[in-house]
Amino acid sequence: MNLIKKLSGLILLGFISDLSANDYVTIHAPTAETYACTEHWDGQFKHVGDALGTDCVVQEFLKADGRMFMRSYKGNGYKNEDWYGYGKKVLAPCDCIVADIQINKVTNEPGIMTPGRASSITFKKSDETMILIAHIDAPKVKVGDSVNAGDVVAKIGNNGYSRNPHLHIAAWKGEQPLQIRFDQRTVGIETRREME
Known about the structure:
Layout: H1 2-21, E1 24-27, E2 35-39, E3 54-58, E4 60-64, E5 67-71, E6 89-91, E7 96-102, E8 120-124, E9 130-134, E10 136-137, E11 146-147, E12 152-156, E13 167-173, E14 176-182, H2 189-195
Parallel strand pairs: 1-14
Antiparallel strand pairs: 2-3, 3-13, 4-5, 6-12, 7-8, 7-11, 8-9, 9-13, 10-12, 13-14
């Protein structure tokens, strides 16, 4: 009986690792600052570019009354400039090609969403995996450019279906949405420098 349980466990582990290897993409951190992300759960959105996407907001340490904790904005957050991420550098997710750029010239006010497609850059990896970073501003690249993971490609903006400055990141291969994992070695680089 123990042998059957062990074999079943090995088969299950092999099945799970096969599924997960095809279910996600690992990318460079989207910004050099510390950030927090919320995930789009499976089934929340149906089309690639949104399905299984993640929304990331830059945060900074706030020290007040002998306490220290993370916040996304100063004051009441009613101005884009109040948000710690607004205007920060957006970093390329991979060694890849810029496949598409969309521009939305309307900048939202925090808390007020203006319908319309967000400004975005879509990247294409050599294995045909596509990675989209949306709600950007001031792109520094053009379609056809080759970029390396961590290159500066834009700034964080607030446009399209967005209530505050942040980055929406999505990945897919063909019509299959992929989960996103960040290479932990690339996360919080600027925050680490400040703490040294």
